[in-house]
Amino acid sequence: MSIDFPADLIELERSAWAAAQRGELTPDLAAAVQAGITAFAEASPLDRYTVEMALKRTVRHPEPSA
Predict the structure, then answer these.
(1) pLDDT tens digits, the chain, 66 residues: what are they?
(2) I need a labelling partner for 33 at 20 to 30 A (CA). Which of 13, 53, 60, 65 fits?
(3) Residue 1 half-sphere exposure, CB side, CA atoms within 13 Å?
């Protein structure tokens, strides 16, 4: 499933993922990501879990460029 995420939500998840990799993820950054995921899910026909998993997959395992 391909979801057209807004650029700001992708960048927020990228920042959180990078911070987590460095051991520097803050509760505020994690909460901001969760709030973004929740808002996106509420505005779409998808449930929050589906949105969160797709966003993580988009950021952590991007499709190779053709």
Answers:
(1) 689 999 999 999 999 999 999 999 999 999 999 999 999 999 999 999 999 999 999 999 977 765
(2) 65
(3) 10
